[in-house]
């Protein structure tokens, strides 16, 4: 069973992922990605989708033209877990 991060681990995650915003109501991290056009945005989403499937950990996200808004949280833990850090790390590597 995946465990929710304790306060120290959460602080460390929020420090590491400075470009993401903590959503305390969901205990999640969110970030907006903006691309040159829809094709670039959708290509990014395709890459993230493949990574998410491999990790069996999936984002909550929305896309409007060249913008992709991603929210990461672990439903099974009802908050942030190490899986969210791993997926955020993998997403940042795509940039
Ligand atoms: N993705 N964000 C997120 N949180 C989960 O708890 C989660 C998931 N993807 C798949 C998954 N859990 C499976 O392990 C469970 O649906 C069985």
UniProtKB/TrEMBL annotation:
Keywords: Lyase. The keyword Secreted does not apply. It holds the Pfam family Pterin_4a. GO terms for molecular function: 4-alpha-hydroxytetrahydrobiopterin dehydratase activity. InterPro entries: PCD_sf, Pterin_deHydtase. GO terms for biological process: tetrahydrobiopterin biosynthetic process. The keyword Protein transport does not apply. It is an enzyme of class 4 (lyase). It catalyses: (4aS,6R)-4a-hydroxy-L-erythro-5,6,7,8-tetrahydrobiopterin = (6R)-L-erythro-6,7-dihydrobiopterin + H2O. Its EC number is 4.2.1.96. NCBIfam families: PRK00823.1-3. Belongs to the pterin-4-alpha-carbinolamine dehydratase family. This is Putative pterin-4-alpha-carbinolamine dehydratase. The lineage of its organism: Bacteria, Pseudomonadati, Pseudomonadota, Alphaproteobacteria, Sphingomonadales.
